[in-house]
Design goal:
heterodimer; B: Four Helix Bundle (Hemerythrin (Met), subunit A); SH3 type barrels; 5-stranded antiparallel beta sheet; about 10% strand
Chain lengths: ~120, ~270
């Protein structure tokens, strides 16, 4: 067992993973994030029944909560807040194109748009 | 032959290869689901007034499934952290719970699908619409029997959730009172399958594709947890990397559901 522990710590030290100490510390963080996500879910349901006097506000509130939850999952569970540059580069490009796709979709529904669908 | 950088990080990237691989794969997945979310926006914004249902799905079941997936994600990171601490038994326990969560999620989802396939909309000759769950036990072919249904006067009314005090009743409609289809092939009787409306089409596509991801992810996690767990004894670092990579995929599946839930169940 001791051998295995040393083996893993050595591996972690070369930058390919996380150390044993980090893993211990992070376990508490994961639990807190998990509880936050569950509270966020309850909040999403609760907010959906509130009358904000405009449908758009309801949609905006739901998307803000979902995005916050998404950030928690990606940032802490997927370790994106402490990743290597290459991963940021890959996800940066992905977000750029995914956002572009959403922009084109919304733009396509505007009268006078170059990609107008109606 | 040894596969290079399966355990050690490549000097130029600082990462082992499988990790770069899974992130590239997840990037393609973001675009796949992004295209489907984009289709959802297009269908919803362009839907004619009174044709997009509100709170058609069971919010409690959707919320339950969200909590189940969040719990499973916590168990995945707990399992990974346990391996980092050399506690293989704890890892087995946590990942076992993850697999149970996956089964629970799929169980709830299949219950919801079954519910939709038993949910019928019947248009009557007098213009009214009867909507509810079919009574499968009824063998009388001269009537269409509902276990619990409500009667509405137009389609737009059907798109709104029933009032809190609305009573759903057992209804039997004689087939002679049901409107004939325009093409002459049978009656205007249709269940809430993907063919029913744009909303249900995109609902089944999005949740069906997501469920396939849950199944795929659960199979991989099970394989690493069970049949392939011998690697822990021979090459623990590589085993931990496998757990991490499968975990990254699982968190992505959770992430997608976090957006699917409000979009399909609440808005």
């Amino acid at each position: 067992m001791t051998y295995m522990s040393e083996h893993i710590t050595e591996h972690a030290a070369d930058g390919a993973g996380h150390s044993v100490e980090e893993a211990k510390r992070h376990k508490r963080t994961y639990a807190i994030v998990g509880v936050a996500l569950m509270i966020g879910t309850a909040l999403t349901v609760w907010a959906s029944y509130i009358n904000f006097h405009s449908r758009e506000t309801n949609i905006l509130v739901a998307l803000i909560i979902a995005s916050t939850k998404g950030f928690l999952v990606a940032g802490f569970f997927m370790h994106l807040i402490s990743e290597k540059k290459l991963i940021y580069l890959v996800m940066g490009f992905t977000l750029f194109f995914a956002t572009g796709l959403m922009f084109l979709t919304l733009q396509s529904m505007q009268p006078g748009s170059i990609v107008h669908v109606r | 032959m040894e596969i290079p950088y399966a355990v050690r990080a490549r000097p130029d990237t600082g990462l082992y290869n499988a990790k770069i691989g899974i992130w590239l794969f997840l990037a393609s997945e973001v675009m796949l689901f992004g295209a489907l979310f984009s289709s959802y926006i297009l269908l919803r914004v362009n839907a004619d007034p009174g044709t997009w249902p509100l709170h058609l799905l069971n919010v409690r079941l959707g919320a339950l499934n969200t909590l189940v997936l969040i719990l499973s994600s916590v168990m995945v990171v707990f399992g990974w952290a346990s391996l980092k601490m050399n506690d293989f038994r704890a890892y087995k326990r946590y990942q076992g719970i993850t697999l149970l969560c996956a089964l629970a999620f799929l169980g709830v989802k299949s219950f919801e699908y079954r519910d939709k396939f038993n949910h019928y909309e019947v248009q009557l000759k007098n213009g009214a619409i009867c909507d509810g769950h079919v009574d499968r036990a009824n063998k009388d072919t001269n009537v269409f029997a509902f276990e619990a249904a409500r009667m509405v006067t137009n389609h737009a009314e059907l798109m709104l959730p029933p009032a809190a005090d609305a009573k759903l009743e057992e209804v039997k409609i004689p087939m002679s009172e049901i409107k004939d289809r325009a093409d002459g092939k049978g009656k205007e009787i249709e269940n809430y399958g993907p063919w029913h409306s744009s909303y249900l089409a995109i609902y089944f596509v999005l949740t069906g594709l997501h469920a396939l991801h849950v199944i795929g992810g659960a199979i991989v996690i099970f394989a690493i947890w069970g049949p392939l767990s011998g690697l822990w004894k021979t090459d623990p670092e590589r085993y931990i990397n496998r757990v991490e990579v499968s975990g990254l995929f699982w968190h992505f599946v959770d992430l997608i559901w976090i957006f699917l839930f409000p979009v399909l169940y609440l808005l």
